[in-house]
Amino acid sequence: MATPILEMRGITKTFPGVKALDNVTFSVARNEIHCLVGENGAGKSTLMKVLSGVYPYGEYTGDILFDGHVQQFRGIPDSEQVGIAIIYQELALIPELTVYENIFMGHEIRKGFLVDWNETIHRADEMLKKVKLKVNPATKVKDLGVGKQQLVEIAKALSKDVKLLILDEPTAALNEDDSENLLQLLRELRSQGVTSIMISHKLKEVISIADTVTVLRDGKTVCTLDRSQVTEAALIKNMVGREIDNIYPRRDHKRSEDVVLEVRNWSAHSQQLARDVLHNVNFTLRKGEIVGFAGLMGSGRTELALSMFGNPDGYQVKGDLYLNGQKQGFKQPRDAIKAGVAYVTEDRKIKGLILAQDVKQNVTLANLQAIASNGVVDNNAEVKIATQYRKDMNIKTPSIEQRVKNLSGGNQQKVSLSKWLFVQPSILILDEPTRGIDVGAKYEIYTLMNRLVEQGMSIIMISSELPEVLGMSDRVYVVSGGQIAGELPIEQATQEKIMELATAN
Amino acid sequence: MSFFGQLQQVLRKNIRDFGMYIALFVIMLIFTVLTKGIFISPRNISNLINQTGYIAVLAAGMTLIIVIRHIDLSVGFLAGFLGAVAAIALVQWGLPVIAVIPLVLLLGVVAGLITAVLVAYFGIPSFVASLAGMLIYRGLLLRATIKTGTIIVPNESFNAIGNGFLPDIVKDSNIHILTLVLGAIAIVFFILGQFRDRRTKMAYNFEVLPNTIFLLKNVFIALIIAAVTWIMASYNGLSWTAVVVLLVVGVYHFITTRTVLGRHIYAVGGNPEAAELSGISVKRITYIVFGSMGFLTALSGILFTSRLQSATTTAGTLFELDAIAAAYVGGVSAAGGVGSVVGSLIGALVMSSLTSGMNLLGVDISVQYIARGLVLAAAVIFDAATRRRGA
Lengths: 505, 391
Hints:
Chain A is α/β, with parallel strands linked by helices. Chain A contains 17 helices and 24 strands. In chain A, helix 4 (117-130) crosses helix 5 and helix 8 (232-240) packs across helix 17. Chain B is an all-alpha fold. The model of chain B has no long low-confidence stretch (mean pLDDT 91). The radius of gyration of chain B is 21 Å and the shape is globular. The interface between A and B is medium-sized, with 36 and 26 residues.
């Protein structure tokens, strides 16, 4: 067997508090399409960022061999130099510029000091022929559909004499025709000597295209399978095949029949993305239960939560929402909060907290009226409340006057939770409640969730961590492609079943 | 720990809060020495305060505008235009002062709300929306004064706002007794407030200044209030402009630090998305903050027209930039969510002390601009540096 084009040996990459990659070994043979699969957070994207130089040499340990030579990339230009090109999920094109300008962005064809536009357009045309895209190179990128933009990205990579093309979920935003087109193109490029690595969650697609598949799980390489061994069952088994650790506090699953929230025929259209983010969603939430919303990233779960919670992103929403049997039309988050709904955001730093303000100000923010008279905040009451939550939630901070940006992720999350508990909600929506926090803090949050439902609160838990979904939920909805792909009672839910539903669309 | 060790530690920890006070002190000291005492003379200080007035009220409003991550370039010529409206109302329409002032203030609020509609409803960047306003108000100012040129305002009670002083309670005294009394009251209230605040904080086991430093701080600030009071009392006493500025800063300080509204404004500035998701209407806050800016702009226009005793065709030129500079010197952060009204007042005083001191020294206007530019840059660099260190 010839030497592989790429060998990554013993790659370890740690972020503060998390080992994202743990001694990963990854080898890609020349002229193959190699798929990289794994759950969210398994380390796929991190591994590709190490490879492309986003995380420069020195920030990780281990060796990268490309074309038989040891490489020490200090940045993306270094990896591009040897012929590695990466295409991210979020396309890196500039919408207001033309196709040819985008293709040669960063490596413009020069004539002296000036850009040689004639040669640029000519060469761009050649590249577009290679990717079988029939558009005028002078078209602005914003006027192309996502599928065609994807092809422009590939044309851009080809213009740099790429040897190894990396695609991070290239078909996630594409419809079936465009996806099939793209896969066909990868096959053709393979015959022309371009090796591809493709990250994908769509297992059917992986099975149809992959020469080899490597499965990552929890930052480790689980196995590498060749074409003959790849089946959907084998992939799912390897992706999720971990023991569920015993970190979930026990709780009896109660069966209440009181429906506190019902959503019917709920659809949402995003003008910004020019597509439907939710399509005909129906679900119920009963009093005192935890309902898990499982699915892959981008499946529409956060959009569902936001569209219900006063719709601050301005989707065009259709459908009905009943709270305790009464129809509601929340116009802004404030209305939802008043009706007893709280939404703990997915990203506490970007959407959850005011980082420059202190713990007490963040805790009281959503319900300041409660500690104010005539619009003047009672500072003493505020201190009392913040002190109480600090104790109840075990927030580790030197003082309640500490700015939240100086707290650890787990403690920030507890501040965020405190803020929402202070509004005394009856329905709590938790979006990835334990992402990026340590096991100890996780356990505390799980215990808190159990305590809250025992007190009669109802919780919607959006989570991409299957063990968490299985460990905490009374019922599970699986969301895929903006739709409910299935509902599973907890007794019947398994990681395999959820994965199957989540990757269906 | 030794007293000086403590002092050093406290200073280092709070350098950002104390920085501009120290800067103001140093600038005043340097000019006092260079002018052989003329700078600190009662007459000059009194003038300095009256000259700062119309910028200081703008800076208070601009602080909140910048805190919620916007900017308002229209305030200069809006102040000029509304000042001209006041003059016309008094002189040509013959309205009494008591009617003119509320009318102009109301017009200011309306103008502020128009900018807010452009920003919050139409989503136009505030830079562009207020730039359009700047051009429009400049045109309106020229139209308002096109026939008459400068409009002289002969109304004494109106002109007292920018030039007059509080009447004294004791007649024929060499020193202004009422001013001294007010100064003494201010000192007592300040110190009582400080002690009460400290006691509450200690009851909650919060970090407080060490005893000696706390006393030193109180003595120091009391001395400064006493000195300023003494200087003003030995001239004509407290000017009406100073009263207006103190009222505005006092009310805005209270709103920003103690009320729900103030907290919502800073939350929107710190993280608009998080604020919206916490049930705060970002639009509503935008309307309120721009409305308040319009109100203060009208006040600034009244102060300026009154100070000049006339409305001129170029009134308000570059006021907006002076107000923005004052806010930045006073520690407002361009990133949003950080800044205080009191800080901006100090910033305004820093900038006008520079002008006043250099005027006394006969420094050429060209050099004055350069010096003020350097101080603005230095203040922002200092702010960025301490922010990074303090995290």
